[in-house]
Amino acid sequence: MATKTIFIETDAYELLAGEKKDHTESFSRVIRRLFAERPALTAGELLDAMQEFNGKGAGPRRKAR
Length: 65
Hints:
Blueprint: H1 10-18, H2 27-35, H3 43-50
């Protein structure tokens, strides 16, 4: 896999390092998790993400209490 070298300031490095789940998680995986797998940040993004469910819901229905 190709790699790129980037330069970031120390405070940005500390923020990125603080997002690692454990010492084995790579910075590439952290960046992918934070940016590619991020939740919807606005109501519009949430509605767009929900389109794939096509009215079927995301899981089993809960019983009414």
